[in-house]
Write a structure and sequence with these properties.
The structure is a single chain. By secondary structure, this protein is of the alpha+beta class. It has one domain. Helix content is 16%, strand content 49%. The chain is built from one helix and eight strands. Strands 1-2-3-4-5-6-7-8 form an eight-stranded antiparallel β-barrel. Keywords: Signal.
Length: 115
């Protein structure tokens, strides 16, 4: 009986976080940008840009995974011409898709996917 409880606990509480354990990779967004994401433990970093040559915007972000959410502070960098900054809270829908649930500072994108 103890092992059944242990398995049930693992399925209900541990596996959902494992499903979102690795966000590292290249992501596309509905803002037309490409985002290069690196996850180390619960910490997330990214660099995003509209285009490789002469982008209208480019940004970096850093934050943490908290359950099914990613909480990020982002800032545009001078490779592009826009200089915004703010907070993003993203909800992980599945291992290959997340969407913004909170955006400040005029951030444009709202849905990210990866192949």
């Amino acid at each position: 009986m103890k092992w059944i409880k242990s398995i049930l606990f693992s399925v209900l509480f541990l596996l959902p976080s494992v499903a979102f354990a690795d966000l590292t990779g290249t992501w596309s967004c509905n803002d037309g940008g490409k985002y290069y994401v690196r996850q180390i433990g619960k910490e997330v970093f990214w660099y995003g840009e509209r285009s490789v040559t002469n982008p209208s915007w480019s940004n970096v972000a850093n934050g943490t995974v908290d359950g099914n959410n990613i909480i990020l502070r982002w800032a545009d960098v001078p490779k592009g011409s826009i200089m915004g900054e703010g907070i993003l809270i993203l909800n992980m829908i599945n291992p290959n898709k997340f969407q913004a649930i909170t955006k400040t500072g005029g951030f444009g994108g709202s849905i990210w996917t990866r192949p």
